[in-house]
Specification:
This protein is an alpha/beta fold. It has eleven helices and twelve strands. It is 54% helix and 16% strand.
């Protein structure tokens, strides 16, 4: 089963538990940990495929015990994936990267971060955290085997825990997206070239190789009559499908991050006008034609950006009301630095639920206002002509 983190920007999803996310288990650092309904399906498949193998490993146990041990393996695998994802989650939070939710589902686990890492080092650290946790737990369980009487049910459970963690850790180190190894490849190529997109393309190619390798390994198991051939076939086919879809999704997400060549932020921002916050809303609305309006209080503190829709509604009933009543607060996430790379600006805008953003220069002075619709139009036009 796969355990991976999802670095992507998109509309904020409901993460309070229930709904489309699944059963809320607990929260860690404010991040909800959810169990999706599909996890039960995956666990049932594992139990059905693994129970006959348990019977061969422990021929003296009853059929019921074989099924119970197979169910225990499914649970241990789920806990291993959970530990893996918690590694991603805690490192991301430590680096200041918000995490929307952690979810266990049919094919493993997913840590959904609210934004992509800004630097290759962050990408690499978050990606490496999960496999590191899995391998440490696998090593601990392997050492524990020496303290447990061999050939019994307890020994098999500890061995299963070791195998589960080693499997999760090593599989996720395979060098292809959406696996953690693919993210490490992307971080490395990104660091060497300075281009995240090149790293993504290299890691997507690695994902294709990983999926091919999984299918080949499953077919070899069938051809050689391996005892675990059916378990191997089921896991490999489903996981290869997951890798292919994940790699395609990463490539599409990278395309959405793209910034058309030759496009400058200065071409998109609207001129900014500063008005007293107590100005009549009708006057502020008249002055806003084609411009962004920053409303400033008497003490010099910005009250916010004029929200044209709210201003029109207010002006229709109270044209002399203070324009501040129709102001959209200026928050840290709605302030863009004019010198930021275009890809980061596009991602910030996608992540933030606001329709206009204040652009400032390196000294913090207002340089213009960027509207979401203007950016969307420019990016769509740039992709069509690229």
């Amino acid at each position: 089963m796969a355990a991976t983190s999802q670095h992507g920007a998109g509309p904020a999803r409901r993460a309070s538990g229930g709904g489309d996310g699944g059963l809320l288990l607990f929260r860690v650092g404010g991040v909800p940990v959810l169990l999706a309904p599909s996890w039960w399906i995956g666990s049932l498949v594992i139990v059905v495929l693994y129970a006959p193998l348990v019977g061969r490993l422990l021929p003296d146990v009853s059929t019921l015990t074989s099924w119970l041990l197979a169910a225990a393996f499914a649970v241990l695998l789920g806990l291993s994936v959970l530990a893996h994802e918690l590694g991603h989650c805690l490192v991301a939070l430590r680096l200041g990267i918000p995490v929307r939710r952690l979810r266990l589902f049919l094919l493993g686990g997913l840590s959904e971060v609210a934004r992509s890492p800004r630097r290759p080092a962050q990408e690499g650290l978050v990606a490496a955290a999960g496999p590191a946790v899995s391998l440490v737990l696998g090593g601990f369980c392997a050492l524990l085997l020496f303290a447990v009487p061999p050939d019994g049910a307890v020994w098999l459970l500890v061995a299963e825990c070791a195998v589960a963690n080693f499997a999760v850790g090593l599989f996720n180190l395979l060098p292809g997206l959406p696996l953690d190894g693919g993210r490490l490849v992307r971080a490395g190529v990104w660091a060497l070239t300075g281009l995240r997109a090149k790293g993504t393309r290299a890691a997507v190619a690695g994902g294709a190789l990983v999926a091919t390798g999984l299918i080949v390994w499953a077919l070899v198991g069938l051809a050689m009559g391996s005892p675990d051939r059916w378990l191997r076939l089921g896991v490999c086919v489903v996981t290869a499908w997951f890798v292919i879809l994940g790699a395609r999704s990463e490539l599409a997400a990278e395309a959405r991050r793209g910034w058309p060549a030759g496009l400058e932020l200065s071409q998109l921002v609207r001129p900014v006008l500063q008005l007293p916050a107590e100005s009549p809303v009708s006057d502020a609305l008249a002055a806003s034609a084609g411009r962004g309006v920053v409303l400033v209080r008497a003490d010099g503190v910005a009250a916010g950006l004029l929200d044209e829709q709210a201003a029109q509604q207010l002006a229709s009933t109270s044209p002399q009301a203070p324009a501040e009543l129709a102001a959209e607060p200026i928050r840290a996430e709605t302030v863009l630095l004019a010198s930021e790379p275009g890809e980061e600006i596009a991602e910030r805008v996608r992540e933030t639920p606001a329709w206009q953003f204040l652009v400032v220069d390196d000294e913090g002075r207002p340089a213009g206002v960027l509207r979401r619709e203007d950016l969307r139009t420019a990016l769509m036009h740039g992709r069509r002509t690229a």
